[in-house]
Specification:
There is one protein chain. With about 260 residues, the protein is mainly beta. It has 3 helices and 17 strands. The strands form 4 sheets. The protein has an 8-stranded antiparallel barrel. Strands 1-15-14-13 form a 4-stranded mixed sheet. The radius of gyration is 22 Å and the shape is globular.
């Protein structure tokens, strides 16, 4: 965790487009292996102070399901990006989501009918196979020789004692910022970019930051972070946040 340096501060939204454009010019058409993710499964979604379980089913490049708040979802997948719509009675809006290369986190926008602006959509996988299924190997033409029974493994050591009931553990905000992923389409080749070096704290407000972008002397900062989402990313469950120290700043995730 670092303190903001005396450099130019640029807001997240215009700055990230600059990072992606510069990366496209520098990297050109360098081949990148893209992983096909499977959207089928259940996902934990946070909206404001509430949470819901999203259920999705992928068939080919079609995805359908329920967003956890009674809205029906349908659309198409291209690479690790989903574009489609949600409907609820006569209401509806656009959905634009991107899955991280780990296949375990979704982020994007949930559109509302005008004039209400779109809102962030974030979800973490609860169940379902992360990667797309692969074809089963062909059956052998003859029975394979018998395989000797494996030697039993020694018993596993006892797990460490759990933390106190009221606490999940310390929050690693730097790792949370470094996990942010943006997919860049360069001539049909999907390139995963991880723009942030870590986190910075300005009083009680925390940002993700990219330092000295392309040796320009400019630091780029995100919008202020919701540390409850960082706890959900790290521990896989909804949690409260407690600040433990101010110099250096540190936080812990607590059970609600």
């Amino acid at each position: 965790m670092q303190q903001p340096r005396d450099r130019v501060r640029i807001r997240f939204v215009p700055a990230i487009s600059t990072i992606l454009a510069a990366a496209s010019l520098l990297l050109g058409f360098m081949p990148v292996a893209a992983q096909a993710c499977n959207w089928t499964g259940t996902w934990r979604r946070i909206e404001g102070t509430g949470t819901a379980v999203v259920t999705l089913t992928q068939t080919g490049n079609q995805v359908t399901g329920d967003d956890g708040f009674g809205d029906q979802v349908s659309g198409m997948v291209s690479g690790n990006r989903f574009t489609g719509r949600w409907t609820h009675g006569s209401d509806g809006g656009a959905l634009d989501l991107t899955m991280e290369s780990s296949c375990n986190r979704l982020s994007g926008t949930f559109g509302w009918p005008p004039p209400r602006p779109a809102e962030p959509f974030n979800a973490t996988r609860l169940s379902g196979a992360p990667a797309a299924p692969t074809a089963a190997p062909a059956a052998p033409t003859s029975a394979p020789p018998p395989v000797p029974a494996p030697t039993p493994a020694p018993p596993a050591p006892a797990p460490p004692a759990p933390p106190p009931v009221s606490e999940l553990g310390p929050l690693n905000v730097d790792a949370y910022c470094q996990s942010f992923n943006y997919t860049l389409d360069i001539g049909g080749v999907l390139l995963d970019l991880y723009p942030y070096d870590g986190a910075v704290a300005d009083g009680s407000t925390v940002y993700c930051a990219a330092f000295n972008v392309f040796e320009s002397g400019i630091d780029v900062y995100s919008d202020p972070l919701d540390l409850r989402e960082a706890c959900l990313w790290q521990y896989g469950q909804t949690a409260g946040v407690r600040q433990d120290g101010a110099n250096p700043p540190s936080w812990s995730c607590t059970r609600p």
